[in-house]
Design a protein that fits this description.
This protein has 519 residues and is an alpha+beta fold. Helices cover 31% and strands 18% of the residues.
């Protein structure tokens, strides 16, 4: 991909900055050929990858190198886009929001600095992948579990910073953050929480520190570059008990949410189950052309054939209980009684006890199988996800489900949705799977995405995370008091980053000098 210069930077100064970066990290870690830029593009983009073209990539190996790079970037006004492993698929992958931005690839910083078995935590660098941490725990027989997202190709730090989640009781990954080391846009190095004491004995034990707590300020923001992160890990339980069930009708998701929400809130259910439609499973095991060749959304009667073939329900639910055997059994009885009010179907029960193979445990075992579904439409596949957060009631969930499915049908995309039940909310992840070389298809997907943002905003729902191309649209739906929160974010941005070098535009937050770039 040919070079697109960032705003405010001449070609000569861009080159000078790259040379200075090479002086810090070594020539081989400054990646600036057309091919290099291609590798850091959004590989799943729905036809708009050219809105987010990286200028180059730099791969530092330490916080000190990052500090030096940040100082150079300030001197030449080079925007930097930090990534941990850059596998943020569906949200922009490794690409920056603003073309010409230099990707700061932290993948080389992949040390597991500490794992504390007694107190259940680790301290890691950004490049540590879910597979790396899982293997480390397994190989060293450390009885601690992490929680992984459906596709576990990325990094533990990147996922927690984007508020990704997995399916164990520790699934809300951003909540497990305890203490960070961060390079500020000025180049200053800080530690949050009690890590701000040079000899802290509790950095990974106590989240709040003293005075304002800053960890979440560096989450989904462009206020700092995280170079170390403390994460709480779950002690391996004595047993787990899985309850799997398939619900045959589209509207069954309503009563399922009403029954499960109070059990999630009162702690009978400690993990956040995902209630997913069957396309999610069918798309990872087959291709659309095996079932249907038509252009529009796959008709309901064809979907029924798919369900019959794979023995699936319209919705599929996997609940998992973690802890002591007796307690799990008691909780399972409560859940079964709640479902028995609505269906004669029985749960399929999966039991695991300490010492059984980990694969059947419900621990966060990393896998990339979920990626298979991008082949659904054929060609070079991609996907993008629209994920609004709603109150956990059947009224909200059914209304949202029917409205979204109708939008998909209007635009001719197969409905692919799930509802993940948190303690006091439901995250409705809607995936759009496409052939990214089919311009007619991707332009429909882009139109669908915009329509869904507007529909959700009318209902008072926002997305919990979004793709680069929609960061401004979603930020602008936070409109209370003339966008007071966005104005606060940008006030902080300008104070911390007066030259506007760190991830301009991330989450819709623009530095003063680049606000005209807002979409
Ligand atoms: P993953 O490795 O899980 O795929 P990414 O590296 O793609 O995650 O990170 C997702 C997003 O999170 C990035 O686009 C960036 O905005 C932010 N991010 C990732 N790592 C860092 C970091 N170390 N410091 C600051 N922001 C980061």
């Amino acid at each position: 991909m040919a070079l697109v210069l960032p705003p405010r930077v001449s070609e000569k100064n861009f080159q000078k900055a790259l040379d200075a970066f090479a002086g810090v990290v070594g020539k081989q870690w400054v990646l600036a050929t057309d091919e290099d830029r291609g590798t850091y593009m959004d590989i799943y983009a729905a036809g708009d990858a050219d809105h987010h073209i990286p200028g180059a990539a730099v791969g530092p190996q330490s916080a000190e190198e990052i500090q030096a790079i940040v100082r150079i970037a300030n001197e030449y006004k080079i925007p930097l886009w930090p990534i941990s492993r850059g596998k943020n698929l569906g949200y922009g992958a490794a690409a920056p929001r603003l073309s010409g931005t230099v990707v700061l690839d932290l993948g080389r910083m992949k040390r597991i600095l500490d794992v504390n078995e007694r107190f259940g935590y680790c301290l890691i660098e950004p490049g540590v992948g879910f597979f790396d941490l899982f293997n480390h725990l397994q190989e060293n027989k450390i009885p601690l579990w992490m929680s992984v997202p459906a596709n576990a190709w990325g990094s533990v730090v990147g996922n927690a910073l984007e508020r990704g989640y997995g399916y164990t009781p520790y699934g809300d990954n951003t909540r497990n953050i305890c203490g960070m080391e961060v390079v500020l846009p000025s180049g200053e190095l800080i530690r949050t929480g009690t890590g701000a004491m040079a000899n802290s004995a509790c950095w990974q034990l106590f989240k709040h520190g003293y005075g304002p707590a800053w960890d979440q300020m560096f989450v989904q923001s462009n206020f700092g570059i995280v170079t170390k992160m403390g994460m709480w890990l779950m002690p391996e339980p004595e047993a787990t008990l899985g309850l799997n069930i398939q619900l045959p009708e589209p509207d069954d998701v309503g009563w399922a949410v009403d029954e499960l929400a109070p059990l999630r809130l009162n702690g009978v259910l400690q993990q956040s189950p995902s209630i997913g439609n069957s396309l999610r499973i069918a798309a990872s095991q087959s291709q659309r052309s095996q079932w249907y060749e038509g252009d529009g959304a796959m008709p309901d009667d064809v979907l029924r054939q798919v369900l019959a073939k794979f023995n699936l329900g319209w919705w599929n639910i996997n609940l998992r209980l973690y802890g002591y055997d007796d307690v799990n059994e008691a909780h399972a009885r409560i859940i079964k009684a709640a479902f028995a009010k609505h269906t004669k179907q029985e749960f399929q029960v999966v039991q695991w006890h300490r010492g059984d193979p980990i694969a059947d445990s419900g621990a966060g075992v990393p896998s990339t199988n979920a990626l298979q579904m991008v082949n659904w439409r054929g060609g070079r596949g991609g996907h993008i996800g629209f994920s609004p957060v709603l109150p956990p009631t059947s009224e909200h969930v059914l209304k949202q489900f029917h409205a979204t499915k109708k939008r998909y049908e209007e635009i001719g995309v197969d409905y692919y949705g799930s509802f993940t039940l948190m303690e006091r909310s439901v995250t409705n992840v809607n995936l759009m799977v496409y052939d990214r070389d089919n311009e007619a298809m991707t332009s429909r997907v882009r139109a669908l995405f915009k329509a869904l943002i507007a529909d959700a905003a009318r209902e008072g729902y926002s997305e919990y995370r979004t793709h680069l191309s929609y960061m401004d649209d979603v930020a602008l739906t936070f409109d209370y008091n003339n966008h007071a929160l966005l104005r606060l974010n940008e006030l902080v941005k300008d104070a911390l980053d007066p030259n506007g070098i760190l991830a301009p535009g991330k989450q819709g937050i623009w530095p003063r000098a680049l606000r005209t770039e807002r979409a």
